[in-house]
Specification:
Number of helices: 9
Shape: flat
Number of domains: 3
Radius of gyration: 27 Å
Number of strands: 19
Largest sheet: 5 strands, mixed
Length: about 425
């Protein structure tokens, strides 16, 4: 939307209004260095506050300093577990701190939805039907796996916008082609769409088209973002024909990228090796709600702010006994992190058949390795198991049940006991 004439009129009116109500005498008198009479008296001019202060034998107005909030320091006990961003990619990573250009992931996040079609298409569903492929379920998934910390608000413009070229003329295969596609979409929708509160942009293409087969995330640098109604838009996603198959989980996966999360499936491998790193664990691997354990890993939830630092135990020595509550439930200790190098750690969490993970066939303690020097799709996370990949290609046998142990990197992880609320982990060397 482009309310340029209204903005100009509003600015003109504001200048006139303030020119009338702001006393010119005060503006001339209350300024830094000007004389005043009552020490300690504070006066606000615009957004600035001045305090009458005695300087030597005179009294003058001094600008009150705005206190600068100091960042919360990382406790020494957790500093060794703050794995840095070290993959060199620049847009998504599982290191800390989270990449600044990525979208807001906590609180109210407004997602503007635009529907686009192409002149070579003769049929299309209603915008409502197309939206129904992902909404409201995607918002419900986000609310569940964020423990209610994310309210992903899907706000559609329920109209089809016609692109200038046939579907076969567009491509998501390169940064520039994807960027140009989004640029045209925003230009088309701007006159009738209010982008002033947009945190996330969702572009849904006609799901019956086949030229754009997959729907990637928008993870543009801030410098390559778009300004619409005064709002920077550089995070979101654009759909392909696969939206009809993946459904809501497609949106959760791609918006996960816009929060900074990486792909946990394998790039450029044979189809039977696609999920060799994490199997059915995490929507960032197999982005399918029909999988057995699509809930995000504890480390992923921590990186984007859905778990607090206090809910992870940093254990540089590793050895000890730890009570872990299921990742699927709110509250409690969610993971033990054992740093093994500058960018690596072994992490253990509890997975149980709860909520979105309700189809999990074996519950227990899941052990995995994180290496933040590895790029998206190359094995940033590797689930560890006593069962070979050939025998268990989706890692469904990987969680350690009561009495089971796994030894890796000199550590032995044992599930000592379990209850619906806690798995007791023992780590020995």
């Amino acid at each position: 939307m482009n309310p340029g004439w209204r903005t100009a009129a509003a600015i003109t009116a504001a200048i006139f209004l303030f020119g009338v109500v702001t006393p010119s005498v005060q503006a001339a008198t209350v300024k830094a260095g000007a004389s005043c009479t009552t020490v300690g008296k504070a006066t606000k001019v615009g957004t600035k506050t001045y305090v009458c202060t005695k300087v030597g034998k005179t009294k003058v107005w001094k600008l009150k300093a705005t206190p600068v909030a100091k960042p919360t320091p990382t406790p020494a006990s957790f500093s060794k577990c703050m794995l840095p961003v070290a993959d060199g990619r620049g847009d998504v990573a599982l290191g800390l701190p989270r990449i600044a250009a990525r979208g807001k992931a906590v609180g109210d996040v407004r997602a503007t939805v635009i529907f686009v079609d192409f002149p070579d298409m003769t049929t299309r569903p209603t915008p409502e039907a197309a939206l129904g492929l992902v909404s409201p379920r995607a918002s419900e998934i986000f609310k569940e796996i964020s423990y209610g910390r994310l309210n992903y608000m899907i706000e559609p413009n329920l109209n089809w916008f016609m692109m200038s070229k046939p579907s076969t003329a567009y491509s998501y295969s390169t940064f520039r082609s994807h960027h140009d596609f989004v640029k045209e979409v925003i230009a088309l929708a701007d006159p009738t769409t209010d982008f002033s509160k947009t945190d996330s942009l969702i572009v849904i293409t006609n799901p019956l088209q086949r030229a754009l087969s997959f729907g990637p995330a928008m993870t543009f640098p801030a410098s390559e973002g778009f300004i619409a109604d005064g709002r920077l838009i550089n995070n979101g996603t654009t759909s392909g024909s696969d939206i009809s198959y993946w459904g809501a989980a497609w949106l959760n996966h791609e918006i996960g990228h816009s929060f900074g999360l990486v792909d946990l499936y394998a790039y450029g491998v044979a189809p039977d090796q696609t999920f060799k790193f994490t199997g059915e664990f995490s929507l960032m691997g197999l982005n399918d709600e029909r999988s057995r354990a699509p809930g995000l890993l504890a480390w992923e939830r921590f990186v984007i702010g859905w778990l607090d630092q206090s809910q992870l135990v940093c254990a540089p020595s590793g050895v000890g006994t730890y009570n872990l509550s299921p990742v699927a439930t709110a509250g409690g200790t969610k993971a033990v992190v054992i740093p093994t190098g500058a960018t690596t750690a072994l992490i253990v969490e509890s997975r149980k058949p709860i909520g979105i993970d309700g189809k999990l066939s074996k519950s227990g303690l899941l052990v995995y390795r994180v290496d933040t020097s590895i790029q998206s799709g190359r094995g940033v996370v590797q689930v560890l198991s006593n069962t070979s990949l050939a025998a268990d290609p989706r890692y469904l046998k990987a969680p350690l049940a009561v009495g089971e142990s796994l030894t890796v990197g000199g550590y032995t992880f044992t599930n000592k006991s379990t209850s619906p609320d806690v798995d007791v982990l023992v780590v020995s060397r």
